[in-house]
Amino acid sequence: MMMKQNSQWTLLLATSMVSFMSTIDASIVNIAVPKLSHDLHAPMNEAEWVVSVYLVLICVLLIFFGKLSDQIGRIKIFQIGTLIFVAGSLGCGLSTTLPLMLAARIVQAVGASMTMATNFGIITQIFPRSRHGVALGVNSSFVQVGNIMGPGLGGLILAVLSWHFIFFINVPIGLIAFAFGYKIFPKDLPTHQKVQIDFIGYLVYALAVVGFFVAIYWGQEIGFVKPEIILLFLSTAILIAMFIFRENHTQNPLLNLHIFKNAGFSIGIISAMLVYAVGYFNNMIMPYYLQETLQYSSAIAGLILMSIPLLNIFSAPIGGMIGDHIGAEKISLIALVIFLIPELIFMFITPSWGIVWLIAGLMLFGLANGTFQNNPMIMGNAGKQFQGIAGSIAALARNLGMAIGLSLSTSLLYLGISQKAGQHITTYPNHNPAWFISGMHFSYWFALGMIVVALVLLIGLVRHQKRLSQD
């Protein structure tokens, strides 16, 4: 599908705006939970479901809408999803009770999953292959900045307005994006094929995702070695095995597993999940280090943490352009090498190092995060017929990575603190900040390990591709 270049970039802006909104809404609400709890007359633990239900439902629905978009058209699903997301945002802002808020949040998640499942496929559809890297890089900037700056933007809004405007702000932006798309998006080509969804396979998949998240959230409260949590993880593994068996033995699978036979696609998915998980270590640990250990105000801490998205904004499209010339795999390999430097800094840094070292580490992390071209790698290794489902799998990897990073970072942090203290601790040790620093270093050893795993996988992939090109 060829379009004029200015129309391509207008549509990229429209899809990226929606990507930014749907991604930032996974984290921006966190900072408003205390106010939500008070105003909606709900206990804090119940109010936290406003955050959880959004993330869980998106993961449940992504594969479904990816499959559906391959059959009836990605643009149609994206545009309908944008309107549903806007309606859900309006409902959230108008909610006066927790049940109404949760119902609106469910609507919002349905719309977000429709746009997340299709945006990558639309971009690869409207841009020529020679510009996939830079186009997906621009979109990645919006997505990654949305992931990182949610709490900061939420705090800014709450400083001058009520929590309702965290949701209301999506309405005009979403309607503008829809209007752009309605006017300029090309029409989906008619497929003349009957919609076929493997609902049995989908039910098994949905149960596996819900089981995984229940184990994650419950495990954080009671501990991951409890029998009930181990049983939940075991049940999730069994459901995943059942899903794989089902998809390999049904005529019209929900997820054609042949897509994973492409090494570039599979390694792209795994490495993306690992990188997003590592990113959440900064989200969870660095605010404590800056505000509690170094005693910076929340405003100064927020400005320091903005080092990551600021570098990310510039490095993602530049990395995409370089990737278009040398390959997404090679530029991603370079990014993973860069990742090693900030992780090593975070593993050893102490207050005596000074703030310059920390800012340098955060900036290098933002540079590497933007340069890492997982989306072009994933979409470029998926066949044309798989672009919709490939985009939804990429979004699923991102959300699962965030959930894993959230759980791992906090669990490892408090495990490291407890080991240093010789007692079980699940809060910041105000009387002994050195225990926190020890826990932080302990956590970042694991973060470094995840980057090394991704690096080894990508080195193997690049060598494999080099051998294939020489044959």
UniProtKB/TrEMBL annotation:
Listed CDD domains: MFS_MMR_MDR_like (cd17321)
Membrane topology category: Multi-pass membrane protein
SUPFAM superfamilies reported in the protein's UniProt record: MFS general substrate transporter
Alphabetic keyword roster: Cell membrane, Membrane, Transmembrane, Transmembrane helix, Transport
InterPro entries, sorted: MFS, MFS_dom, MFS_trans_sf
One term of GO molecular function: transmembrane transporter activity
TM segment ranges: 50-68, 80-100, 106-127, 134-159, 165-185, 197-218, 224-245, 257-279, 299-319, 331-349, 355-372, 393-417, 442-462
Localization annotation: Cell membrane
Main location: membrane
GO cellular component: plasma membrane
Protein name: Drug resistance transporter, EmrB/QacA subfamily
Organism of origin: Pediococcus ethanolidurans
